[in-house]
Every structure is written in C-alpha cells, then in structure tokens.
Amino acid sequence: MSDADGIRVDFRGRLGTQEFDVRFKVPIRGVTGLIGPSGSGKTTVLRCIAGLQRLQGTCVVGGEVWQDGAAFRPTHRRPIGYVFQEPSLFPHLSVERNLTFGMRGAPPRPGTGVGFDEVVALCGLAALLGRSPRHLSGGERQRVAIGRALLSNPRLLLMDEPLSALDQASRDEILPFLKRLHDSLLVPVIYVSHDMREIGQFADHLVLMAEGRVRAAGPLGDLQGDPALPLAAARDAAVDLHAVIDGNDIPYGLVTLRSGGARFIVPGPPGPVGEARRLRIAAGDVSLARTALEGSTILNVLPVEILTATPVGTHEMLAVLGLEPGDPEAEGPRLLARVTRRSWDQLGFEIGDHVYAQMKSVALTPSLASSSRR
Amino acid sequence: MAGISPDIWQPVGLTVALALVTTLVLLVIGTPIAWWLARSPAWWKEGVAAVVALPLVLPPTVLGFYLLLALGPDGPGGVVAGLWGGRTLAFTFGGLVLGSVLYSMPFVVQPIRTAFEAVGDRPLEVAATLRASPRRAFWTVAVPLASPGFLTGAVLGFAHTVGEFGVVLMIGGNIPGRTKVLSIAIYDYVETMQWREANILAAGMTVFAFAVILALRMVERASRTAP
To answer: What is the rounded CA–CA span in Å between residue B22 and residue B93?
Structure first.
C-alpha cells in the first residue's frame, strides 16, 4: 500500500495526562473502525487526523501530507467531514442552512453521489429542511449532522461514535441509515466506536487501540479471528462475515448467505441474489462435532478445520476455525467457537482436525437486530 | 411651558450623541478584546480583564483626573492632539468620547466575553471541519450565537454613558453645547435653584433607566426560553 491509496498516521507525544504512540496504515477506502475501550485515545486520534488537536508526528491521507514535522494543515484546509458524538448543529441556522454551510464553492466530485438532492434523499431530510434544529429529535439531528458533513464534499469522513449520544430508538433509526450510506457512497470513513457489535456491521478494517497505542490493525476478519487479541477473548466475541445472498426461502422467512465457500441458512428479510449482507456469528453460538449430525434441527453444519485453540478462563476453549478445510493458508473466512474444555478433551480435538461446526439458525443475526444491544 | 429654560434640550441631544458614539466605538474595539479574553489561553489575560474592569471599582473622578492629566496640553493626549493642530483633547467632545469609552468599557466587554465563552469550542470546531476559515467562523457562527451578549453590552454601554458624571465633569467641564451633558445639567440646575428643569431631566432619566432595565430583562428571558 503506497501513501497514495492509504491513510498513514504516526502520532507521538503527550496530550493532557495521556501518552500517545499511535502508528497505523489503512487503505483509504471502505470503513475503518477505530475501536478500543473508553480512555484508549480513539477520539484524540480522530481529532488529530482532523487537525482539531495536535500531537507531534505525521498524517498523510491519500498522498496528501496533512501533517509532517512543522508542517500542519489547519482543519479548515483539510478535505474532511466530521461527525461529532453530539450532533452539534448550528442552532441559529435552519436545517437547510446547516446542510449548505460547508457547500460553498466546491461542486461535488463526480461519482461520489453527494449532491444536495442525493444527500437529502439518502438522509431522509426533505421534510425537515425548513425546520430549526431546536425542534428535531436526537436521531433527526444526527442525520442532519451526517448530511452536513457529507455535503462539504469530504475525501475522508471522520465519525466519532455518532450513535453513542442517542437513545435506543434513535440508534435503531440511524444504524440502517449508516449501513446504507457506506454501501452507496464512495467516501472512505474512519469510524470511532467502543462497541464491536456496532462497528462489525459495516467496518472493513479495524484499528484496535489501548492506552494510547495501537494493539493491532488490519482487515476486520483477521482481527476478530486473532485469539491473541482481546476481541476474540471477550465474553461476546464474534465474527462478522462479509456475505452475499445466495437464495431465499420466503415461506419460511429464511435466506441463504454465502461467504467464501460456506453457505449459511439464517432468518432475515429476503433480497436479490448477490446482495451484500453482514453475518454475525457469536463464538458462543458455534458448537463442534466429529460427525455431521443427521436428524437434527440445526440447519447449519459446516466442515471446518481447527486452526488454533486457546484456553479461556478455567473451563472454556476458544477455537478459531477455517471454513476451507485442508487449506490452512487460505485467506478465507474464519469462525470462532467457544466450547467447554471438558467436551474438547473428551472428543479429543486437536489443532489441524477436520470437524463440523454447528450453528442454530435462530441464533444467527444477519440483519440489523444485532444493533439493539448496547 | 412658560418659564422653562430653552437650553434644557441641548444637554439631552449632546448626551444621546455621546452615548451613541461611545457605544459604537466600544462595539468596534470591545469585540476583539472580549474575543481575546474569552478564547486566549494566555495566563496573564485576567490581568488585562482586571484593567478593563477597573472603572467598576474606581471613583469616576479618579479616572477623570488621570485622563485630564493625560489629555491636557502637557500630557500624551495633548501631544497627539497637536498632530492635527489641536491644543488638547480635554474639554472637547472627543475627550468626552475617550473618557466615556474607558469608563463604560467593562459594561460592554464583559457581557460579550461571557457570551463568547458560552458559545464554546464546539461550534467553531464544527465550522472548521466544514471548511470555514477562522474569519468566516467568527462572523457566521460565533457572532450570531453571541448576539444576546452584544445586545446586552450595547444597551448597558449606552445607558451607562448616559448616566456618567464624574469622568465627564473632570475632563469635559461644563461647556454648554459642547461638553455639558445631562447629569451635569441637572447638577447645574440644582445649583442655580432651577428645580423645575432639574426635575424634568431627572424624571426623564428615571423613566429611561427603568425602560432600559426592563428591556434587558425581557431580552434575557426571551433568549433563555429559546435555547
């Protein structure tokens, strides 16, 4: 990855009481999730990329040097859009004038789909244009803030936990909209979140932070499936697979999703074959068997290879499973399975074994239902 | 109204002119001072703020006395006045304006500073992320959001200038039509036993003061109910 198609960040130093040493490089496309516990410095890093705060170091975005040594481009000269935790609309301007505040001059770059009418339609703002921000709900305000950021024609959209200040109803309203946004726009996004369930629904890359440092950076699946990282060890560990619709079983309300060579039958709204969906599979919903069960209600039984096994706590084993058995080098999708150590030992599982992973369909959450837990 | 001195309206006009000019000057020079006081991280800014606020505590005659020294023919003001051929700013309308500006400055700067502080960093950060230069952010975001503070500052500055006495007496003297403002006119009428004229002016000032305070309270209330 050269600087021209990447985001390269190298920040060092101290801000307030926190020490930072943040280095990562991610592609400038798709959604990059910047995640970590509260206080790990995610927001500070985002603000430094925006130029709102300054740490010593380097920031190069798409080949443009935004910061390097003494060179520092002020925020208003960086082609960013920024969505804050709180919507932060200008209270003295109407919704429409909030939206057009950043539109001066620059016409939208072709192909990005961020003309005024498109954004108003995408964000569902047509009915709100003449209103004052004072009279909007939390969710409506955040939609306006997102539209406003998009309309400033950004080359990079920075979002700082845009859902966290919202109540549950507003979150459920915004999340599908965010997914639609990422599907339909070509603007790359850096999205700060502490909630893996949220970010897993649309991130392509992850930067995992802890205490002012980068623990790991890479494609979503790689980090979720790395047993050395806290993501896989977490109580609610899961993988979010990139999948496409392979078929619909409308009478039973099921869809078949394909991810790599694996097919999953899951509940969910039907859609055209080939449409992209995310499929979240929690480690606790996957069990392992020596043989493929017959006569079971479990619909998803997949041949897998055990790639790694890590004891977790006193009684559990966390296994990383390759969905393309026989090819351990394959970059294909991976699953996590959390099973008891007793079963593991009784069945004599070993790394490299070809076994069957079983998932009850009703446990799988291909749609937006996964957003409803905080 | 027979028997009323025809000169009674002259100080009224002069006072209104003085208060208007003073308020305008204060809005022009007080705004950057208030902005700096609200936004600067400099540790010594509270020292500047204290200097600006001095007239709140000092007897006006002290301020007037030093101004008189400064503006007299031998002071720096006299030297400056010499540049355009004048002898001194003391006992002129210009001198009155200068004295009033210093005297009323805290009443204009403080509300504007408080309003700028209440705006906070966030709206300006948002403006910057939307490509607004600092100048554009100031005019299109900070000033409109701080407008209640500007209104309060302008009204207080105007009203305070109308009511001043000590500073004006010291540096303006009592020259009819040039430096004889309302408060001095009242004093004069009392001295010369013209009770009726003194009463008219004093009552007018009382009504004016009441109206100003009432208006300010209403504005404050309106801006509080519309957050």
So the answer is: 11
Tens of pLDDT, residues A109-152: 555 557 888 888 888 899 999 999 999 988 899 999 999 998 98
**Which of B119, B122, B126 to mutate to probe the A interface, most A CBs <10 Å?**
B126
In a domain, A233, yes or no: no
**Helix, strand or coil, per DSSP, at residue A196:** helix
Domain-located, residue A319: yes
* Residue B49 domain-assigned (yes or no): no
Residue B119 sits in which domain range? 8-39+58-225
ipTM of the complex: 0.84
Domain count, chain A: 2
User: Is A32 within the bounds of a domain?
Assistant: yes
Give residue A372's pLDDT band: very low, low, confident or very high (50, 70, 90): very low
Is A194 part of a structural domain of the chain?
yes
The answer to whether residue B124 is domain-embedded is: yes
Contact A90 B131 (CB under 8 A): no
B107 part of a folded domain: yes
Q: Is B207 buried (19+), middle (13-18) or exposed (0-12) by CB count in 10 A?
A: exposed
pTM above 0.90, yes or no: no
Positions of chain B with pLDDT under 50: 1, 227
Report the gap between the CA of A312 and the closest CA in chain B (Å): 44
Contacts of A101 in chain B (CB under 8 A): 127, 130, 132, 140
Q: pLDDT tens across A323-359, in order?
A: 877 665 666 788 999 999 999 999 889 898 899 999 8
Q: Classify residue B52: in a domain, yes or no.
A: no
